[in-house]
Amino acid sequence: MRTFDLAPLYRATVGFDQMADLMDRVLTDNVGAQTYPPYNIEKTDDDGWRISIAVAGFSDTDLNVEVRENALIVTARKADGDEGRSYLHRGIATRAFERRFHLADHVHVTGAEHVNGMLHIDLVREVPEALKPRRIAISSGDTVERKAVEHADA
User: Fold this and answer.
1) Radius of gyration of the chain (CA)
2) From CA 113, how far away is CA 119, in angstroms rounded?
3) How many CA atoms lie within 13 A of 91 on its CB side?
4) What is the spatial distance between Cα 97 and Cα 35, in angstroms, rounded to a whole number?
5) Which CATH architecture has domain 35-82+90-153?
6) Among 32, 66, 99, 154, which is most buried by a count of CB atoms within 10 Å?
7) Domain range list for the chain
8) Residue-wise pLDDT tens digits, 86-102
9) What is the 3-state secondary structure of the chain?
């Protein structure tokens, strides 16, 4: 059950839609949250992560990884290859799925590999030079006073 109404936040702010959407997603009741397929998120560096998804039974051609609007979307569609097979027990799920991961600003996918039934997706945060902190030189107060005096004389 949801206890917060974020409608006033949408009406009273401009440019914070992404933050409001994030809060809305977090506060949404996740009783029916998707649990298939299982996955891990591992921190590999200060600005690096790896998402590992268990995709047993899927081939490379069955899997699709794409980035769209700050979201990493992993989908799988299994071609019907079970015709003529009779299972006594079927415990390996190969049903179609779509798993979404919302990416922060400046987080990019650097690669994906499918090894031993695991799909590994590597991510890295690449902050543009213009947004990185930079040091500003501080001049002494004498220089400022001298310039002010020179302007007054002119």
Assistant:
1) 26
2) 6
3) 1
4) 10
5) Sandwich (2.60)
6) 99
7) 1-33, 35-82+90-153
8) 888 888 878 899 999 98
9) CCCCCCHHHHHHCCCCHHHHHHHHHHHCCCCCCCCCCCEEEEEEECCEEEEEEECCCCCHHHEEEEEECCEEEEEECCCCCCCCCCCCCCCCCCCCEEEEEECCCCEEEEEEEEECCEEEEEEEECCCHHHCCCCCCCCCHHHHHHHHHHHHHC
CB burial readout 42-69, b (16+ within 10 A) else e: eeeeeeebbbebebeebeeebbebeeee
